[in-house]
Amino acid sequence: MDFTNSLLLWYLENQRDLPWRQTRDPYRIWLSEIMLQQTRVAQATPYFFRFLEAFPTVTDMANAPEEAILKQWQGLGYYSRARNMHFTAQQIVAEYQGNFPNSYKKLLQLKGVGEYTAAAIASIAFNEPVAVVDGNVYRVLSRFFGIETDITSSKAKKEFSELANTLLDKNRPEQFNQALMEFGAIHCTPKNPKCESCVFQSGCIALRDKKTTELPVKLKKTKVTNRFFHYLVFEDPEGKTLLEKRTEKGIWHNLYQYPLLETTESKPYEEILRKIEIEHAEKSISSIRVLENDAVLHKLSHQNLYIRFYKISLNKSLTSGIKVESLENYPFPIVIYNFIKSNYL
What we know:
Adenine glycosylase active on G-A mispairs. MutY also corrects error-prone DNA synthesis past GO lesions which are due to the oxidatively damaged form of guanine: 7,8-dihydro-8-oxoguanine (8-oxo-dGTP). It is an enzyme of class 3 (hydrolase). Belongs to the Nth/MutY family. One of its GO terms (molecular function) is adenine/guanine mispair binding. This protein is α+β, with helices and mostly antiparallel strands. It folds into three domains: 12-128, Endonuclease III, domain 1, CATH 1.10.340; 130-220, Helix-hairpin-Helix base-excision DNA repair enzymes (C-terminal) (Endonuclease Iii, domain 2); 225-343, Alpha-Beta Complex (Nucleoside Triphosphate Pyrophosphohydrolase). It has 14 helices and seven strands. Strands 1, 4, 5, 6 and 7 form a five-stranded mixed β-sheet that branches. The chain has a two-stranded antiparallel ribbon with strand order 2-3. Strand 6 and strand 7 (303-314) form a beta hairpin. It starts with a helix and ends with a helix.
């Protein structure tokens, strides 16, 4: 069976009409690829248009403050992608006069641009014959060829990359790469792949051996940590509140939040109240109440965050207080922004 031709024929008939497929502009392709890492197409699409409106060129993005980038990114998650993207834009302007490097090897020198993103930009924007390897590619190739190599192992990337490059249509690398990713995204899906209508039925080893649920092999499991966040929503007599910036490394770096009290385990309500009263006695607290009986569960890739908000009314003014109407200007983690939107905006 001719895998490459069958794949390209399938793509011509089944490809989705996506905005970043209507251009060879490396800026737009790069922007879409960064957004689509760990994000569904439906969620990423409005952000793609929003970013282009706010930052029409890579130079516009480079010249914007980081907070403006983070604000536009708010809700997409994995905020290090946005920070790296901003740094990359500045690097392109400083080192390449605002023009994207036009080869795979040079693209790899950009911060936040790994092998997959570099291959996507090089092949789609510059027609360079280099294959992409992402989760979709692992899945499609492991199933069709019956490859049982653990995709989290050190040798997997080399093995799958070599295979993808041997299959690559050197004359149409852009079409081949997008076809392979598209096939994995909408047809050979992680769960319930459409095997009954698959163009590869006669050649797929996973289908033949009834191993579609077992491939690709992924042995390493992500350890999930539980964290308990108690956000302190102070409000003084003028209606002002307090915010703080998360400057430590880790989740939500450089985003804003309410003052945080974090515990390593779930604590009784009374214990949290005493801790707030002791640590913030100088603020002249008049009342404290928890705003929801149950904690909000916010799931990240490797962390479960149990979040509560506490309304803390004060008897005296906050010297560094922030007016509620100005909260809209700050970049927040989406769980905090949703709280603000529901209660204040």
